[in-house]
UniProtKB/TrEMBL annotation:
<comment type="similarity">
    <text>Belongs to the BMP lipoprotein family.</text>
</comment>
<feature type="transmembrane region" description="Helical">
    <location>
        <begin position="9"/>
        <end position="27"/>
    </location>
</feature>
<dbReference type="InterPro" id="IPR050957">
    <property type="entry name" value="BMP_lipoprotein"/>
</dbReference>
<dbReference type="Pfam" id="PF02608">
    <property type="entry name" value="Bmp"/>
</dbReference>
<dbReference type="InterPro" id="IPR028082">
    <property type="entry name" value="Peripla_BP_I"/>
</dbReference>
<keyword id="KW-1003">Cell membrane</keyword>
<dbReference type="InterPro" id="IPR003760">
    <property type="entry name" value="PnrA-like"/>
</dbReference>
<feature type="domain" description="ABC transporter substrate-binding protein PnrA-like">
    <location>
        <begin position="46"/>
        <end position="291"/>
    </location>
</feature>
<keyword id="KW-1133">Transmembrane helix</keyword>
<keyword id="KW-0812">Transmembrane</keyword>
<keyword id="KW-0449">Lipoprotein</keyword>
<protein>
    <submittedName>
        <fullName>BMP family ABC transporter substrate-binding protein</fullName>
    </submittedName>
</protein>
<keyword id="KW-0472">Membrane</keyword>
<keyword id="KW-0732">Signal</keyword>
Amino acid sequence: MQPLNQPRWILILTVVVAFGFITTIIIKVSNVLSESSYSERTDEQTKVTIITSDEVVDQSWGSLAYIGQLKIEEQFPIEVTLYSEINTEALQLETVERALEDGAKVIIGHGREFSDVFTELAPTHSNVNFVTIHGHAIHENQSVYSFNQGVIEAKAGIAAALITVTNKVGLIDAIDAREEQPQFEAALYQSNPEIAFYYKVVDSWDDDAKAGEYMKEMIDEGVDVIYARGNGFNRAVIEYGRQNQIYMIGYLEDQSYMASEWILTSVMNDVSQMYVAIMKDYFSEEGIQHGVKLLTEEDGVYQLAPFGPMFTKDDLQFIDNEANNRD
């Protein structure tokens, strides 16, 4: 019986192997066809332009545009051109027109300051997506990608209210966003109505001298907790705060490495992830949608850094409870 069954098993094995081989070929052919179809679309719309008013140097606002460029070049089949130090209206207009002449299909302004020039040019270039990081959008081919980090800023505010001894807390901002982003200040008052809030605007992401001047003024007024919501100037502010033994809240990255004993926490933003979100939408079936899109923690654009050693376990539980009660 054994010899008679052997041909049957050989036949079955041959069929299985052949089926597997044919299936593999089908899958590979399908992938090739899909890639070809994808390439046909992206070959027509691959050029992306990023424009920033800042320098592209370490720790600068402009450097985040460059990191965004690197991320999307790695993840998407696109050709990216980055223009930096485009800091006047004339330069903005000239640069955007150059990008249009070069055939850019997506033009990204790294900041709200590009909203006006995009509003001016968008109506006459309906086949181009004009996108700003923050700002405003009016036309159908104009979009804004932004985020509301209010939840984590409120939590940072609760922490500041818990730590302050003088009941004086300050915020040094790069741009005037007091009305747009009130959660930190609101959390202070809700946690302790006796707190006095000090607010200063540098009007720059990296003006160390002006930020330092404001910090000195606050310290002279008795402020003992300062949230530095800047970028380039944060390093100078934190160093000054460390020397004067002032508690601080960092920004953009976990800045505890600069002064671990004096950093309460950091409101961390990964602005470069906004570029990934923009390009994901561009290559989706729906494409980039008109208007404002608010990104969330799930998009990887913000989170709160771990709290510092000045907080006890009871303090951390209190902060969590207070934050949850506000949700």
